[in-house]
Amino acid sequence: MSTDNKPLIAVTGATSKQGRSVVTTLLESQRFRVRAFTRRKDSPEALRLEKLGAEIVTMPLELGRQNDLVAAFKGADGAFLMTPPIAPPETIEAPLGRQLADAAVEAGVQHIVFSTLENVHKITGGTKYAPHFTDKARVADHIRGLPVSHSFIMLAFFYTNLLEYYAPRMDGDTLLLPIYLPEDFAAPFVDPLTATGPVVLEIFSNPARYNGKTLPVVGDIISPRQMVETFQRVTGIKAEYRNAFTRDGLLAYFPEFAANEFFVRELLGMVEYAVEYGYFGKEHDLEWSRRLAPETLNWEQFLRTSGWRGDKRSFGG
Ligand SMILES: NC(=O)c1ccc[n+]([C@@H]2O[C@H](COP(=O)([O-])OP(=O)(O)OC[C@H]3O[C@@H](n4cnc5c(N)ncnc54)[C@H](OP(=O)(O)O)[C@@H]3O)[C@@H](O)[C@H]2O)c1
Hints:
Belongs to the NmrA-type oxidoreductase family. This protein is an alpha/beta fold.
């Protein structure tokens, strides 16, 4: 079969943790071609994706780009849409997501997969501040009203948050892990680098089956206490939990966060929401992604495959 006969999927944020998983899995399946959107064609990750066979397109994710986006989506059969991390009080996430979806539809894309989260504002009656959840839910509402087949994925907390944003520190012979959840609260977690691709491949392979569906992506449901115990067992490094769940705890370990009070409020609002209401709505089947892809990494497998030993890591996004 000529490669030109394969459906073309456009991937926004292609070098992100989610995006690179999607691009890699779609290309490795040999069932799809991929057009990867990035700001920098010459970044190491963009070059790696190009080597795998992706068509690389320079396309920043920012407002006022409707025409460029329509041109970039032209010829694509499907689009994987995501919004990059946007720190409050910036409020562009909802309009940015809507712009991406509108442009994909205008370009003639047949099926959209958008990476969304719950509407925290609605669920909590406005008592918890987590705009990076709620804004994604608003984008999803917008997509539901567009004349296009669509599906949503909802990723659990990323394991990588502990490597990238809440890095541990040594105290004598002990590694202290400041974690943003209460020690015994079991929450859903996932590895975005390996778990996003398989579910998106499944959806684009069966778009009619998943039209209108919202699918949670979960690798483990685990408490900080269990995470630290597992970390000790896997690495042999003495480790202890530290509370970064309360404002005092968070700012004691990450005083630099205090520079943006909105960001602090958002971090606290997000975890209070997760603890009091549950990260995912009760209607979701949290086993779906693990049934679909039994190789989905739990925390222990993530530690073993990533080789993480407490160092701060960046994923180049
Ligand atoms: N952390 C969690 O626990 C969690 C859980 C669920 C959902 N999420 C959501 O996941 C999203 C982030 O996904 P991710 O962690 O996979 O992304 P990421 O690794 O932080 O990468 C973001 C990517 O977006 C691209 N980008 C384009 N325009 C950008 C801009 N103006 N600013 C920053 N980046 C821009 C960058 O690629 P180029 O440089 O190549 O353009 C970058 O690779 C956020 O919306 C977050 O709310 C996070």
